[in-house]
């Protein structure tokens, strides 16, 4: 097998790997670092990570397109027609905006510092265990709060959970779902709020990085492998999120906790 083919397969594998781990609560960023470490893969800069993350964003937009269209329609409709349904969706949009602020501010101010300080495999092992503890804590919770029952406090706390997930090994979906369910949200509402909260922060990262990606020395040389990674991540993210939605309905989060404990301990003990 030629070196060029191996290189293409490397990027395709990493795209699929990131896409599969992005929606489920085991930390895609942490697993991407683990994959690069164990397979001795060197990806310069954050260009590839941003590209595959954008593919995951497209998958989320596709799956939640009906919710997004309804929120936009009713949210804008509330400005002219103040019905109860319109107000519920208007408030939901407001809470998504508020929930985005903590991670947005911390990411802009301290994103590079966090990446440099915690860019360590042992740290990923420790934070995977922390993710597992959070998932274990909510494993049997059955909340009652629906979309229309959320509050400003809920939005801020879940937003802070998303901000904590800026650290490698802390799952973004895991942190936000743990926070949401600990606040008493139903599984469906917690899942929807978590992934709709992913959209603005991911859009912000992508928009902020467009110029850097276009000016990158690697983009012109690696556009074919990057494209393969994007496609792999898009498909894997879509089916992984669909699978995770079914798991949430059945309340089987404990298995993700077991996984995080096992992998986290293995990294701390043997890497």
TrEMBL record:
The entry's keywords: Antibiotic resistance, Cell membrane, Cell shape, Cell wall biogenesis/degradation, Hydrolase, Membrane, Peptidoglycan synthesis, Transmembrane, Transmembrane helix
Membrane topology recorded in Swiss-Prot or TrEMBL: Multi-pass membrane protein
GO CC aspect terms: plasma membrane
Subcellular compartments: Cell membrane
Keyword flag Kinase: no
Enzyme class: hydrolase
Pfam families: BacA
Ranges annotated as spanning the membrane: 46-64, 92-114, 120-138, 190-210, 222-241, 253-270
Biological process terms in GO annotation: cell wall organization; peptidoglycan biosynthetic process; regulation of cell shape; response to antibiotic
Alphabetized InterPro entries for the sequence: UppP (IPR003824)
Gene Ontology terms for molecular function: undecaprenyl-diphosphatase activity
Reactions the enzyme catalyzes: di-trans,octa-cis-undecaprenyl diphosphate + H2O = di-trans,octa-cis-undecaprenyl phosphate + phosphate + H(+)
EC number: 3.6.1.27
Family: Belongs to the UppP family.
HAMAP family, per database record: Undec_diphosphatase
Protein task: Catalyzes the dephosphorylation of undecaprenyl diphosphate (UPP). Confers resistance to bacitracin.
Further comment found in the protein's record: Bacitracin is thought to be involved in the inhibition of peptidoglycan synthesis by sequestering undecaprenyl diphosphate, thereby reducing the pool of lipid carrier available.
Protein name: Undecaprenyl-diphosphatase
Gene: uppP
